[in-house]
Specification:
It is built from five helices and twelve strands. By secondary structure, it is of the alpha/beta class. The protein starts with 5 loop residues before the first helix and ends with a strand. The strands form three sheets. The protein has a six-stranded mixed sheet with strand order 1-2-3-10-11-12.
Length: 240
């Protein structure tokens, strides 16, 4: 099975939005390796991006999911390697992360050592373990026996909190600045430019919330329109 990239999925959602708005002449990537992502009716350039939560790194902004997903895979790998149930019991492992996190190899080694120490205890009780300043584990008894001693349970991202409108406002500024810089070199090629943002923070806002977002944002920009699209209903969107 071929996995579609996040950008491919976002572009598919935006295309559905454009079709729902009545546009039919939609060309994907009219200039290979250059913006925009879509050209509509030969005049309207549409650039696409995920509206997601970001963290600051030495090399720029990075989506929180870019660290959260690899960590989840590492945790699952460690749990699978720690063997079958002991004394007829399995245990759920809940974990939480707070950035910056250790390197993946360091994280895997530290988690393995902590979980092995728990597994080798003569008596098991619900417990919390601080693997590092960035990663905490909570180990709780499972209600039934599973194929492995440890079973991946819930996870929490300590950096993914915050009020929805506040997070949207903060990350909108990041997305707009990033995409404005990206199209600067080619902006002259097309008369109209839209920025289409697929909303993975609010997942669609009520009309009252849309108005509140416009009020708190008050963002000066060079786009003809910025559209926020609900990924759960691609035909639903609103303009800032």
């Amino acid at each position: 099975m071929v996995r579609r990239s996040k950008q491919d999925l976002s572009e598919s959602i935006v295309k559905q939005y454009l079709l729902g708005a009545g546009y039919t002449d939609i060309q994907h990537e009219p200039e290979p390796n250059d913006p925009p992502d879509f050209l509509v009716n030969g005049q309207l350039a549409v650039e696409v991006r995920r509206l997601n939560q970001n963290e600051e790194t030495p090399t720029g902004h990075r989506g929180l999911e870019e660290t959260r997903i690899p960590i989840s895979r590492r945790v699952q790998k460690v749990l699978n390697l720690l063997g079958p149930p002991v004394r007829g019991a399995s245990w759920f492992v809940w974990y939480s992360i707070k950035r910056p996190v250790p390197s993946r190899n360091q994280l895997e080694r530290a988690m393995r050592e902590a979980l092995l120490a728990f597994r080798n205890q003569p008596n098991h009780q619900r417990t919390k373990i601080h693997v590092s300043r960035a990663v905490k584990l909570e180990i709780v008894p499972a209600s039934r026996v599973h194929p492995t001693f440890f079973v991946l349970g819930a996870s929490a991202d300590g950096d993914a909190g915050g009020f929805v409108l506040g997070e949207m406002e903060r990350n909108l500024r990041i997305c707009v600045a990033e995409k404005t810089a990206k199209i600067a070199r080619v902006h002259h090629r097309y008369p109209v430019w839209w920025l289409a943002l697929v909303d993975y923070i609010g997942y669609g806002l009520e009309i009252r919330e849309q108005d509140e977002l416009r009020q708190i944002l008050r963002l000066e920009h060079s786009w003809d329109k910025i559209v926020i699209i609900n990924p759960l209903n691609p035909r639903e969107g609103f303009a800032l």
